Amino acid sequence: MNYRRALAASALVLALPLAACSADGANDGSGGSGDGDATLSVMASFYPLQFLAERVGGDLVDVTSLAPAGTEPHDLELSPAQVAALGRADLLVYLSDFQPSVDTAVQEVAPNAVDVHEVVHLTADEHADEDEHADGETESASTDEHDHSGEDPHFWLDPTRMADAADAVADALAEADPAHAEEFRANADALRTDLEALDERFRTGLAQCSGHVIVTSHEAYGYLADRYGLEQVGISGLDPEAEPSPARLREIQQVVRDEGVTTIFTESLVNPKVADVLASDLGITTAVLDPVETLTKDSAGEDYLAVMTANLEALRTALDCA
């Protein structure tokens, strides 16, 4: 009997440190709302929102992007494991009506989430009807796959809208981790300063240009064009996979001739074949204008601010700006 009591006592002594380790593991970053020193687990639905979460959260967050680098975020399909992880995250940062699989997952697992759609004031797609009917059944099917509910989702190409989204992310992080609310809001203020400086560089850099029309592979640049007094002419509409009709190509050729356009802008994730042929036929050049939906090894910079700065230089060259 004494032998059994000794064994039980030894087991209890061994169990205590193991239990302590288990308790520590429960707060190792999988959740931060209950521990002022824990790291918040944050998921972002695609790169621009990942950038915001990383800048606003700083060292207090561990951010994962649902859309892998170098892939088209519109086409994201979530695995069951990703959906489960999304449900366990302390916060999801997403844009509704942009990635259908994310919208579905939000409905299924009801995560703690901030939808930046509510603060960035999306504008209507002026050419939605044209996109829907431009190329018959092929176009219609593609439009179903890229349903933006009649709105242009590419708000992040306007730095001022990015700043508004950063404030919303800061508020959501502060709610998830009140102990660090001041730090999150200070980080958002610092990011707003950077974004407003970027906005000013665009405004002054594009203020005196010989041209104002940009021909792009698809119409991702409406917010940028509106913000800085440019006119966007897309080979395709909001759906980058849509094939332009012969009539559309003739329209673009006429615009190029009438406006003296010297450059057609392509993207790293969109097949440049149509743009290359069009530019060759017209005797003009092509250049990359990055929609910053993702980062790739070919991106002209290591983050959103750097890629946008490279975009500014590409625009200044193409538009012959002073």
From TrEMBL:
So which residues are the signal peptide here?
Answer: 1-22
Compositionally biased intervals (Basic and acidic residues): 143-155
Record field: compositional bias (Acidic residues): 127-138
| Record region (Disordered) | 126-157
Q: Which InterPro entries match?
A: AdhesinB, Bact_metal-bind_prot9, ZnuA-like
User: Which keywords label this protein?
Assistant: Signal, Transport
GO MF annotation, one = metal ion binding
Q: What biological-process GO terms show up in the record?
A: cell adhesion; metal ion transport
* Pfam families from the UniProt entry: ZnuA
Q: Which family does it belong to?
A: Belongs to the bacterial solute-binding protein 9 family.
In Swiss-Prot or TrEMBL terms, this protein is called Zinc ABC transporter substrate-binding protein
Organism from which the protein derives: Miniimonas arenae
